[in-house]
Amino acid sequence: MTPEMRKRANFKVFSGNANPALARKICDILGVPLSEAKVGHFADGETDVHILESVRGEDCYVVQPTCPPVNDNLMELLIMTDALRRASAGRITAVIPYYGYARADRKPAPRVAITAKLIANLITSAGATRVITLDLHAAQIQGFFDIPLDHLYSRPAILEYIRNRNFENTVVVSPDVGSVERARSFAKRLDMGLVIIDKRRPRPNEAVVYNIIGDVKGKTCFIFDDLVDTAGTLCMVAQSIKDQGAAKIIAAATHGVLSRDAIERIDKSPIEEIIFSDTIPVNASKSAKIKIVSVAPLLAEAIKRNHMGESISELFK
């Protein structure tokens, strides 16, 4: 911890069971110990939380992605936040590297819940005074919160990894129209061309490619997305551009949800390498194609700047 940080009120970093390894990395960078809390379950499955040290008047950060098992990890986040609030913590920041339930951000049909807004309300009601998160599935979710939210991007970590490789004749592929802005930002920073996939979803976790807008023949193609769940869409897009003559296909996504047989699909696909950040724990040993980059330095810097009352707008870029 820097001398400047010591001059200010103390702060503490807590973690649930979702991704304690990431929380420890953040604490190592900040030079503080991971604060102690008991986060377990009763015999019937209810979440049991006990904060094991004083937090009165202090800044507290709860590092907890709402990744699978989503409901368990969400409840841990809510209950830990409530426990800190009742223990008179000064400020409580929910550090949510992966924000689950984000795909339901609007009403595509009658009588459909908007769970992205519901979860935002629950986090606020539990006692969080700020949220730090990465690569939301839809940018408008920032407006669902009635408390300040810092929306960061994993781009720096992924770009650094790619720039350290000597790729030639490259192009960035947006897996759907909704991801064009994200893909364009990567293409601009990597000085590459842009290809857009015209994709439709007849039902959840299924997609059909109608058109490929741009040229991929003989090129190294980078597919960028915010998350990979069942990998069905990703592998279908990869096969489509392979059929159009792509020479090499590399995918990158911030959040490796990897449900069901996602890893098996990736292994059987023409994707040669896939890059994930560590917002969600991913066992890279399950596939030689998986590479992991860490967002711990980015989150640690955001926590430090928030604690010091400094601008973190530079981290949004």
Write structural notes for this entry:
The chain has 317 residues and is of the alpha/beta class. The chain contains nine helices and 14 strands. The chain has helices at 3-7, 20-30, 70-86, 115-126, 155-163, 180-190, 232-243, 262-268, 296-308, and strands spanning 11-15, 37-41, 47-51, 59-63, 91-96, 130-134, 149-152, 170-174, 193-200, 208-213, 220-228, 248-256, 273-277, 290-293. A seven-stranded mixed beta sheet has the order 10-9-8-11-12-13-14, with helices on both faces. A five-stranded parallel beta sheet has the order 1-4-5-6-7, sandwiched between helices. Strands 2-3 form a two-stranded antiparallel ribbon. Strand 12, helix 8 (262-268) and strand 13 (273-277) form a beta-alpha-beta unit. Helix 2 crosses helix 9 (296-308). The chain starts with a helix and ends in a 9-residue tail after the last helix. The model has no long low-confidence stretch (mean pLDDT 92).
What's the gist of this structure?
By secondary structure, the chain is α/β, with parallel strands linked by helices.
Give the topology, please.
Layout: H1 3-7, E1 11-15, H2 20-30, E2 37-41, E3 47-51, E4 59-63, H3 70-86, E5 91-96, H4 115-126, E6 130-134, E7 149-152, H5 155-163, E8 170-174, H6 180-190, E9 193-200, E10 208-213, E11 220-228, H7 232-243, E12 248-256, H8 262-268, E13 273-277, E14 290-293, H9 296-308
Parallel strand pairs: 1-4, 4-5, 5-6, 6-7, 8-9, 8-11, 11-12, 12-13, 13-14
Antiparallel strand pairs: 2-3, 9-10
Helix pairs in contact: 2-9
